């Protein structure tokens, strides 16, 4: 990926970052890079995720999914980091003739029932994913799916792949029923797991080129250096941090590619759960170009000056010419195609923000393919780890998430009231 931070400078935008502030920040980036390199060398928890381009084993992943060669549908049962990476890869890269992919993350009974009623479970492979192996939503959804399979006479043990860590309820289940399984590697937090078995197994089931994905990520890993002026990922992480501390507390991720809509969700989790600590962190918002020009852009251009807009632009797009028309006033569409129109929409939006002095950063990809996406995902993870070092927060923990998981279990056991604090009810 390439990054252009020109429109985030104070020469263009307010809030904006002065060039000399970036130069001073670069000294901290150098220190942070050393810390990251040390963490990677020692395979420390979290930092180990940045080694996945080298440590992931695509052959083992392909071997694990090989028995499911008659699959029509891949159903991933997992939540948060155990679903969003797989969904990102699928929506960006799966071919039209690939098996369909569905996700059960939420435990909304309406949604679960409707989804299961519409699936042919005899042609579905269920990838149940939980790093901890103990997440209530995932285990409950899996039990529902398992029962639905049994009710349809499908041998669920033949149609289930378990993706989990060394221990936990899910590991016990895999061992008890001798289910095919792949390990979530040690040291890789959920939201950093897209390039591990968590993302690669469902991607392989959909025929996605996981070698190219890892190669793109490896290229981004090789490009990490101790300066934000040489490393696109660090330029992004450092600029987002520098803008946040100058008042841009919201980061709107706005890819100009429908296939990257889920990437914006993945990014939102990465940014929120990793950096939202100790009263710090930038609030990620998901948007999609050009669609959200027609819903959110008004606020971004004329609302509070508290936002960074991050664009992701794709150079090489499929050719879909816009047919000629003799309708009056549409001459500007002559000899053009949808990709050119989308690009014009992007440039207009970028210019519109710059013209009103609102900061934006442009992330550029050569194409929406496995190699570029690998670079983008790795680059955003590295940007996030760098930002965590600059904020001085514990990037790889999620105490608020764990608190919620524990509280939900306590409520179900009757050991905690729903509302311990004040109520002010209006009916
Ligand atoms: O990033 C994280 O750690 C979380 O979002 C987890 O991925 C999420 O809570 C699911 O956890 P698990 O994979 O243990 O089921």
From TrEMBL:
<dbReference type="GO" id="GO:0006096">
    <property type="term" value="P:glycolytic process"/>
</dbReference>
<feature type="active site">
    <location>
        <position position="294"/>
    </location>
</feature>
<dbReference type="InterPro" id="IPR035476">
    <property type="entry name" value="SIS_PGI_1"/>
</dbReference>
<keyword id="KW-0324">Glycolysis</keyword>
<protein>
    <recommendedName>
        <fullName>Probable glucose-6-phosphate isomerase</fullName>
        <ecNumber>5.3.1.9</ecNumber>
    </recommendedName>
</protein>
<dbReference type="GO" id="GO:0004347">
    <property type="term" value="F:glucose-6-phosphate isomerase activity"/>
</dbReference>
<dbReference type="GO" id="GO:0005737">
    <property type="term" value="C:cytoplasm"/>
</dbReference>
<comment type="pathway">
    <text>Carbohydrate biosynthesis; gluconeogenesis.</text>
</comment>
<keyword id="KW-0963">Cytoplasm</keyword>
<keyword id="KW-0312">Gluconeogenesis</keyword>
<feature type="active site">
    <location>
        <position position="405"/>
    </location>
</feature>
<dbReference type="GO" id="GO:0006094">
    <property type="term" value="P:gluconeogenesis"/>
</dbReference>
<comment type="similarity">
    <text>Belongs to the GPI family.</text>
</comment>
<dbReference type="InterPro" id="IPR018189">
    <property type="entry name" value="Phosphoglucose_isomerase_CS"/>
</dbReference>
<dbReference type="InterPro" id="IPR035482">
    <property type="entry name" value="SIS_PGI_2"/>
</dbReference>
<feature type="active site" description="Proton donor">
    <location>
        <position position="273"/>
    </location>
</feature>
<dbReference type="InterPro" id="IPR001672">
    <property type="entry name" value="G6P_Isomerase"/>
</dbReference>
<dbReference type="InterPro" id="IPR046348">
    <property type="entry name" value="SIS_dom_sf"/>
</dbReference>
<comment type="pathway">
    <text>Carbohydrate degradation; glycolysis; D-glyceraldehyde 3-phosphate and glycerone phosphate from D-glucose: step 2/4.</text>
</comment>
<comment type="function">
    <text>Catalyzes the reversible isomerization of glucose-6-phosphate to fructose-6-phosphate.</text>
</comment>
<dbReference type="Pfam" id="PF00342">
    <property type="entry name" value="PGI"/>
</dbReference>
<keyword id="KW-0413">Isomerase</keyword>
């Amino acid at each position: 990926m390439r990054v252009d931070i020109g429109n985030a400078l104070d020469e263009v935008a307010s809030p904006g970052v002065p060039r000399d502030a970036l130069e001073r920040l670069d000294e901290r980036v150098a220190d942070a890079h050393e810390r990251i390199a040390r963490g990677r060398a020692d395979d420390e928890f979290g930092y180990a995720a940045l080694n996945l381009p080298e440590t992931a084993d695509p052959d083992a992943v392909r071997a694990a999914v090989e028995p499911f060669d008659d699959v029509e549908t891949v159903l991933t049962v997992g939540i948060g980091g155990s679903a969003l990476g797989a969904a990102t890869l699928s929506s960006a890269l799966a071919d039209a003739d690939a098996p369909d992919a569905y996700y059960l993350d939420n435990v909304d009974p309406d949604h679960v029932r409707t989804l299961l009623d519409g699936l042919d479970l005899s042609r579905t492979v269920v990838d149940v994913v939980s790093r901890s192996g103990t997440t209530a939503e995932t285990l409950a959804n899996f039990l529902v799916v398992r029962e639905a399979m049994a009710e349809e006479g499908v041998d669920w043990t033949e149609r289930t792949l378990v993706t989990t860590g060394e221990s936990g309820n899910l590991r016990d289940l895999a061992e008890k029923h001798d289910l095919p399984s792949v390990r979530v590697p040690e040291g890789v937090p959920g939201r950093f797991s897209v390039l591990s078995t968590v993302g690669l197994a469902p991607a392989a089931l959909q025929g996605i080129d996981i070698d190219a994905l890892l190669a793109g990520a490896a290229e981004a890993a090789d490009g990490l250096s101790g300066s934000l002026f040489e490393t696109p990922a660090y330029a992004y992480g450092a600029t987002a941090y520098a803008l946040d501390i100058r008042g841009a507390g919201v980061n709107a991720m706005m890819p100009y590619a429908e296939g990257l809509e889920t990437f914006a969700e993945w990014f939102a989790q990465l940014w929120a759960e990793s950096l939202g600590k100790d009263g710090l962190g930038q609030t990620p918002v998901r948007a999609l170009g050009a669609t959200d020009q027609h819903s959110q852009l008004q606020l971004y251009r004329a609302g509070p000056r508290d936002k960074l807009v991050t664009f992701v632009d794709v150079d090489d797009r499929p050719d879909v010419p816009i047919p000629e028309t003799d309708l009056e006033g549409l001459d500007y569409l002559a000899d053009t195609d949808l990709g050119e129109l989308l690009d014009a929409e992007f440039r207009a939006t970028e210019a519109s923000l710059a013209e009103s002095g609102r900061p934006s950063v442009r992330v550029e990809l050569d194409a929406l393919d496995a190699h570029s996406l690998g670079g983008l995902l790795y680059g955003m993870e590295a940007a996030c780890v760098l930002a965590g070092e600059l904020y001085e927060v514990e990037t790889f923990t999620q105490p608020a998430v764990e608190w919620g998981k524990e509280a939900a279990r306590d409520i179900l056991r009757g050991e905690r009231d729903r509302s311990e604090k004040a109520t002010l009810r209006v009916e």
